[in-house]
Design brief:
CATH architecture of chain B: 2-Layer Sandwich
Helix content of chain B: 10-25%
Number of helices of chain A: 17
CATH superfamily of chain B: NADH:ubiquinone oxidoreductase Nqo5 subunit
Number of helices of chain B: 3
Shape of chain B: elongated
CATH superfamily of the largest domain in chain A: Cytochrome-c3 Hydrogenase, chain B
Order of helices and strands of chain B: HEEHEEEEHE
CATH class of the largest domain in chain A: Mainly Alpha
CATH class of chain B: Alpha Beta
Structural class of chain B: alpha/beta
Helix content of chain A: 40-55%
Strand order of the largest sheet of chain A: 1-2-3
Radius of gyration of chain A: 22 Å
Largest sheet of chain B: 5 strands, mixed
Largest interface: A-B, 40 and 34 residues
Structural class of chain A: mainly alpha
Oligomer: heterodimer
Number of domains of chain A: 2
Largest sheet of chain A: 3 strands, antiparallel
Radius of gyration of chain B: 19 Å
Number of strands of chain B: 7
CATH topology of chain B: Beta Polymerase, domain 2
Strand order of the largest sheet of chain B: 1-2-5-4-3
Strand content of chain A: 5-15%
Number of strands of chain A: 6
CATH architecture of the largest domain in chain A: Orthogonal Bundle
Order of helices and strands of chain A: EEEHHHHHHHHHHHHHEEEHHHH
Shape of chain A: globular
Chain lengths: ~400, ~170
């Protein structure tokens, strides 16, 4: 490889060094590879290889009924699995023309924003780890744990959540779940503030991240960047604002933007988004509390064809038993149609392109995975910079192998 | 505000009868053009001061084995971020000679998306700088997302697999 790479002018090296960063390297935080050509410690070129954990979800989805595809979406961006789940439910609901009750929308917002916080929290604290500050990562981990406990209370699992169903949630939020949300809202801001004290104005951190891995707004758009990485470059594109879903338009929030698109701006944008998420959870939680009487128990839309009936009804009512059987066996035909729907995931626009020909499973399903799209810019971001800067750039892009490989 | 009707009119003014099959499934304007026109249409959508479709959201293919000479559809999802309008643009090609011009000269983002499309459907993007497999192994000699490769029957019993026996 190194024989056809020309050393930059003024280099004192005799030839370039090839360095394999990955597929299993602690700095990649996931299974993907970078083949770097180094002139001393500077990067001359980088070639990315992905696909080590490709699991053929799109092919598998072509034989599964809609509800069985939800667990596949968990495994895309596993740092914020609930957002993928909700995105998938919303896509199905759009295709099927299901309108969800307001309470469901707000509950979904609570879950999605918690997921966004846990996603950004991991990313920002990992940037900290890669700049040499492990403490922050360990300190905030207990609040990711609390978020996972909320998921656990709602759906029973923690990482790959499979949360919610087409039309709503599998069960109502328990009092304990709300208690934990309250605990989170009460305690987390203090923790986040302390976490920020450690980094935001820390001279070492600033010098390691400012001007590292920058990208202009124009290039970022051309590369198909979305999410915090695009906003750090100064473009205020946010799916929650542009195409509001799940009643995001009822709530108030701002879209933070950066200007230089470097690692420091990405850190700040993610940080500000966490504050916005806290405010969103607060607003959505208050709205949920406003429902009184029968409305306060609504947690799913009335769609017997797609929403599994209550287990007690299955044992005692004929109709519920029939629906249960038909849904579980995947005997429900999906109406034909072609739909693209996207949500704002942890890393940007998570899109679902679903084509149905009227069968029991999708004819074609494509996941737009933001990581996959913007990882191709990596070479441009790190060319000419130091190896250690490339590592910070990689973690501040929040590259998730599961999302890249699909 | 840019409406679907305006986009449609602008396209018909420019390309006449070559842009066809206009539809609006779930509100998204969808149309198709002959495959050798794909770059002209995308470039026009990009450059036109009114249309400004300058963001490539997604690019993938769909396989329709029963539609003769139109087996593979390459689907572009384009987004005008200023007016917040999305459109879907399709070109169809046959599967024996699946040559389609690459959009990498207009969008850097198309690079890996096209590699993925090639990897799974075998669409040959003419002019692509580095058209090789991306998610599957390099030695693979077929295009797995095509419909002629069905998933394995889940109930099969003839397989003797000691490690993963079922």
């Amino acid at each position: 490889m190194s024989d056809h790479i020309i050393l930059p002018e003024g280099s004192i090296e005799k030839n370039t060094t090839t360095l394999n960063l990955g597929p299993t390297h602690p700095a990649t935080h996931g299974v993907f590879q970078n083949i770097l050509e180094l002139d001393g410690e500077r990067i001359v070129s980088a070639e990315q290889t992905v696909g080590y954990i490709h699991r053929a979800f799109e092919k598998i989805a072509e034989r599964r009924p809609l509800y069985q595809i939800t667990p596949l979406t968990d495994r895309l961006n596993y740092c914020s699995a609930p957002i993928n789940n909700m995105g998938w439910h919303l896509t199905c609901e759009k295709l099927l023309g299901i309108k969800t009750p307001k309470r469901v929308d707000y509950l979904r917002i609570i879950i999605m924003e918690l997921a966004r916080i846990s996603d950004h929290l991991i990313c920002n604290s990992i940037v900290g780890v890669d700049t040499g500050a492990y403490t922050g990562f360990l300190y905030v981990m207990q609040y990711r744990e609390l978020i996972y406990e909320i998921y656990e209370e709602v759906c029973g699992s923690r990482l790959t959540t499979n949360i919610g169903r087409i039309g709503g949630f599998e069960r109502n939020f328990t009092a304990k779940a709300f208690e934990r949300v309250e605990k989170f809202l009460d305690e987390y801001p203090k923790v986040l503030r302390e976490f920020n004290n450690m980094f935001k104005r820390n001279r070492i951190f600033m010098e390691r991240t400012i001007g590292v891995g920058p990208i202009s707004a124009e290039r970022a758009l051309n590369y198909g960047f979305t999410g915090p990485n695009l906003r750090a470059a100064g473009v205020d594109y946010d799916v929650r604002v542009h195409t509001p879903y799940s009643s995001y338009d009822d709530l108030e929030f701002t879209v933070p933007v950066g200007s230089t698109g470097d690692c420091y701006d990405r850190f700040l944008v993610r940080d500000q988004e966490m504050w916005q998420s806290i405010s969103l959870i607060n607003q959505a939680y208050r709205k949920v509390q406003e429902f009184k009487g029968a409305e306060a128990d609504v947690y799913h839309a009335d769609v017997p064809e797609y929403y599994l009936p209550d287990k007690n009804d299955v044992y005692t009512k004929m109709e519920a038993l029939i629906w249960h059987f038909k849904i579980v066996m995947g005997e429900i035909d999906i109406p034909p149609g072609e739909v693209y729907n996207s949500v704002e995931g942890g890393n940007g626009e998570v899109g679902f392109y679903l084509i149905s020909d009227g069968g029991r499973s999708p004819y074609r399903l494509h996941f737009r995975r933001p990581c996959f799209v913007y990882y191709q810019a990596f070479e441009e971001l790190v060319k000419g910079s130091m190896l250690s800067d490339a590592i910070i750039t990689m973690s501040s892009l929040n590259l998730i192998a599961g999302e890249m490989d699909g | 505000m840019l409406s679907n009707e305006t986009i449609k009119q602008r396209l018909i003014e420019k390309f006449g009868e070559q842009v066809t099959n206009f539809a609006e499934p779930y509100g998204m304007l969808t149309f198709e053009a002959p495959k050798d026109m794909n770059l002209k249409v995308i470039q026009f959508l990009y450059d036109d001061p009114e249309l400004k479709f300058r963001f490539l959201t997604d690019l993938q293919a769909v396989h329709y084995p029963h539609e003769k000479e139109r087996e593979l559809a390459v689907v572009y999802h384009l987004h005008n971020l200023e007016d917040n309008v999305r459109i879907r643009f399709k070109v169809f090609t046959n599967s024996n000679n699946p040559d389609v011009f690459t959009a990498t000269k207009i969008f850097e983002a198309a690079n890996w998306m096209e590699r993925e499309t090639y990897d799974f459907f075998g669409v040959n993007f003419v002019g692509h700088p580095n058209l090789k497999r991306i998610l599957n192994v390099d030695e693979m000699d077929y295009f797995p997302m095509r419909k002629e490769y069905p998933l394995e029957e889940q109930t099969r019993v003839d397989k003797d697999d000691e490690m993963f026996g079922r």
